[in-house]
Amino acid sequence: MTWQLNSSKRNGAALVGLALAVCGIALARLLRRRLRFSALPPMCPLSMRETLREMTARGTPPGWLYRTRHELGTSVFRLRIPALEHFVVVCDAETARTILLDTKAEKPQNFYKPMAQVTGGIGTIFTKKTHGEGWEHARKGSAHAFTSVRISNNMAAAAPHLADLDAVMAEHARGQAPMPVSETMVRLTVDIIGSTGFGGYPMNALLDSDEASASDGRQFMLDLETALLEFTSKQAVNPLRRFTHVWHPEVIEAKAAALRLMHFAQRILDVYRASGRCEHDADSLIAHLCNNQMYPSDSERCADVLTYLVAGHDTTGYTLSWILCELARNPEIQDKLAGEVEEKGTESPYLQLIIKEGLRLHPVGALGSIRTCATDVATRDGGVIPAGSSCLMPFYVIFREGWIENPTSFVPERWKVGAPQAKDLERLIFPFSLGRRDCIGQRMAMAQLRTVLAHISPRYKLSIAREPVSDYFLTLKPANAFLHVSLREKRPKRA
After folding, report:
1. Which residues contact 423 (CB under 8 A, 6 or more apart)?
2. Chain centroid offset of residue 232 CA
3. Which residue has the higher pLDDT, 494 or 366?
4. How far apart are CA 457 and CA 165, in angstroms?
5. Sequence-distant (≥ 6) Cβ neighbours of residue 461 within 8 angstroms
6. C-alpha distance across the termini of the chain, in Å
7. Residue 142 pLDDT more than 80?
8. For the chain, which domains are there?
9. Left, alpha or beta for 381 (phi > 0: left; psi -120 to 50: alpha)?
């Protein structure tokens, strides 16, 4: 009896000890959590509803984030976003680099679901998880198409479209009618991508003026705007719209537009295969997509065809437009570029400076990149971004931070080798993002920018007819911008 009593006491003491240990561990974790979260970045004072309105309104998100960053007086802050414990806006370039270069950081899938509706719900090289099935084979399978040598080989196919551009600009010069720069440059880019990336597929967007029957290139642009406006904007504000696909005319049309886009991508594949070049073409992007046997079906190939076309046409087109607007605003820069390009062509050093400054001041991917942090990230002001946070890194804000001298001015010379801030700019300005998920087509984009600007600058003189208005909808464009175009007098060649 005594033994049983002693045993019961020992068991009771053990249970009490275990309970105290569990409580101690829980208390320690709670204290660590409180200490960790006490260093969280400050919260934007707007309500969740107000924040959603600002982040989804067309035209306003980049500028609103820029103002919020300066009103709060901090380069890292949080927003109230539904279903997310921590949504952090990172406007500090060093912190953004840390997050982007972390190989374990991931793209948050809930932010890319609306984009997947454009491809019928099929994941793409843009929307798939970095550490999930399918992304790596798609990236590696296409990477060889974007080497410098292959891009150089392919850019020769842009020549006919530059001749078309001459016809358009010469007509504006003769008739003295201002040129709608954004529409012109985006249509030109669609045509160039068709020729350089998709085996010479005839987009015919630039010269298309038939309102009754659109060319393939222009129909692509119309369908894309219809689908993206519904899936990424209207349904983001009102998620219930997705359940009205049976009777709501706008939702029905968006679904039809998405289906036409996938059929268009299949047509690009079919035309290329019928040409007989699939097995012998080592240069073009379409060849790598066709020959990549890791794709389970043509539906996945079509989704990536569409993704490359979507990601490449307006980003490059609007970058060209912004740079042309800056040249028109700054005639002395424009004249200096014209003279140097006439002598050195696309290898003009001044041309490289102008492109870099255009990408800094007007990053068309204005909201930048978004990642889910794999680990805690320390900020430079002593704060902590907890692991699992969704981090938005808005390039529009990062590239206009106060450490940059005259950050809102167009100053190409700031990038010149030996300039006071040149090294820091090269490291902390990354318009094509960084890390494993950086822009796979950045070399192609740069080649197109060099080629088109080197073609325009010695031939035409530009001036502002109507100032651009910054308009953001997935990309930042100079809306309603019109330029006066006049022919430059040919300079006598030096002996």
Report:
1. none
2. 15
3. 366
4. 13
5. 331, 334, 338, 485, 486, 487, 488
6. 119
7. yes
8. 40-487 (1.10.630.10)
9. alpha
